[in-house]
Each structure stands twice: as structure tokens, then as C-alpha cells.
Amino acid sequence: MQEEGIEAFRADVARAAPTLGEGADALRSWDDVKLLTVTLDRLERWHRPGLLVIGDAAHAMSPIGGVGINVAIQDAVAAANILAAPMARGIDQDPLLAKIEKRRLPAVRVIQGLQAAAQRRIISPLLQRKAGAMKPPLPLRLLDRLPVLRRLPAALIGFGYRAERVRSPKA
Predict the structure, then answer these.
(1) DSSP state, residue 44
(2) Alpha-carbon distance 167 to 48, whole Å?
(3) Annotation: CATH topology of 44-166
(4) How is the chain split into domains, by residue range?
(5) Judging by beta carbons within 10 Å of its beta carbon (0-12, 13-18, 19+), is residue 79 exposed, middle or buried?
(6) Contact 58/46 with Cβ under 8 angstroms?
């Protein structure tokens, strides 16, 4: 992009979002352009004695789906549920910190996996200007055709993923 020059960038902005066209004229050089660095990663270990990290400190989420705050709140709720009673009784919490990570890690992996898939299959092709030839993936087409299915992503985002909820009962 930078090789094409700031003029080409301003033209791209005006083409992509005509309402921003006049504002794009205010961009005089690349120093006026700020890029958002998006990362999708997680710590190998979220805890050590006296410390528990949750939310973005433990696992950076992509802005795709706007789920980062939901996942952070779910981390906090899990931590509170696991730690509150032992803390009230004065019990050492350090041995419990691994339990929080173990409980939350599957949900984080699922959400990050969905975000990575959305990036690969939807966002990247759009950014590479292949959108005109791009057919939406089957799951998106199904969501569009069957409104009742739209509840599934909403429930996953709102309530989170818990591995024990989806495992079949042992016989």
C-alpha cells in the first residue's frame, strides 16, 4: 500500500467508504495513518503463585465478532466461582489457579479458532479485493437462510463455550 503512495490510499478509502472521502483528504502522509495491529494468541500458562491473568492479558482476541470483553468477563466469572469461597475461608488460592485456566482454555481455543477461520475465509479475501468473486461460506449462507440458526453464535458469544456442556454422558 505504501509503495502505491498516499494518494492511492486516499482514493481507496474514498472508494470503499464514500462518506469518508472528504476526510481522507486530510491524510497528508503515512504519518497520519495509524494501523491497528491485530494478534490472536495466548499465554502458555496463565498463573503462578500469587498471580492469575485473565482476559487480554492471558489471551489476545481478534476484534472479529467483538467477543473479547465477553470472554474476559467469562474468565472473571469462572475465577470468582472457583476462588470466592476458598478466599472467604482463608484457604490458599494458589493451587486453584490452574483449575481456572483448565476450565477457560477450551472456550478460548474455540473462540480463537472461529476468529482465525473468519479471518482466513472471509476477512482476508475481502481485504485482497476478491469479494466480488467470493461466495460466502456455507455456515454464513445457512445463517442467512435459516434465522433460527442465528441464535447459535449469539449463545456461544453470550454464554461462552464449556466443554462439559457438549460432551455426551458416560454410559
Answers:
(1) S
(2) 30
(3) FAD/NAD(P)-binding domain (3.50.50)
(4) 1-35, 44-166
(5) buried
(6) yes
Rounded to whole angstroms, the Cα distance separating 36 from 134 reads: 25
84 near 100, Cβ under 8 Å?
A: no
3-state helix, strand, coil in the chain (%, to 5): 65, 5, 30
What residues contact residue 132 under an 8 Å CB cut-off, 6+ apart? none
> Among 6-10, 87-91, 93-97, which is the least confidently predicted range?
6-10
Beta strands in 31-139 (DSSP E): 41-42, 47-48, 51-52, 59-60
pTM reported for the whole predicted model: 0.70
Half-sphere exposure of 154 (CA within 13 A, CB side): 6
Q: Which of 68-72, 78-82, 106-110, 121-125 bottoms out in mean pLDDT, i.e. has the lowest?
A: 121-125
